[in-house]
Design a protein that fits this description.
Oligomer: single chain
Number of strands: 7
CATH class: Alpha Beta
CATH topology: Alpha-D-Glucose-1,6-Bisphosphate, Chain A, domain 4
Order of helices and strands: EHHEEEEEEH
Strand order of the largest sheet: 1-7-6-5-4-3-2
CATH architecture: 2-Layer Sandwich
Strand content: 35-45%
């Protein structure tokens, strides 16, 4: 089992940023390797992701949004024990900190860097989308 975490700061108000990040339809725009996400029944989300080897995998996951604490949690059923969370915290009037945490039973360490690399890529995507691409301006 292993846990991986990353954090970045973003020039955006925490409430506006969290509203964007918590919309299931926006997940593929910032989550590394995710190519599609559609809401299902209740807290279910149907996803497609591109794997590092070039193949694609489809799956069903749960996705929970806690607005008052600006906390997202997700995971999938199965033996890999995969789950994660994303927290958004204000660090100023128009500045936020985003933290992503992943837990998996599949590996004991990230020898090839793919899990930590995915977290780092996700955080960089969030920062780029918001600060350079103006994703929150729409």
């Amino acid at each position: 089992m292993a846990d991986f975490t990353g954090t970045t700061t973003v020039d955006a108000a925490d409430d506006v940023l969290f509203a964007f990040l918590s919309d299931v339809h926006n997940l593929p725009t910032y989550f590394a390797r995710m190519t599609s996400a559609e809401p299902g029944e209740g807290n279910e989300v149907r996803t497609t992701a591109a794997l590092p080897d070039g193949s694609q995998v489809e799956g069903r996951a749960w996705f929970e949004v806690t607005d008052d604490s600006r906390h997202l949690a997700w995971g999938s059923e199965g033996e890999n024990g995969y789950h994660g969370y994303l927290d958004v915290r204000a660090v100023g009037d128009d500045r936020s900190e985003v933290e992503v945490h992943i837990h998996t039973e599949r590996v004991t360490e990230d020898t090839d860097g793919s899990i930590q690399g995915g977290i780092d890529e996700t955080l960089a995507s969030i920062k780029q989308l918001v600060e350079r691409a103006g994703a929150l301006d729409a």
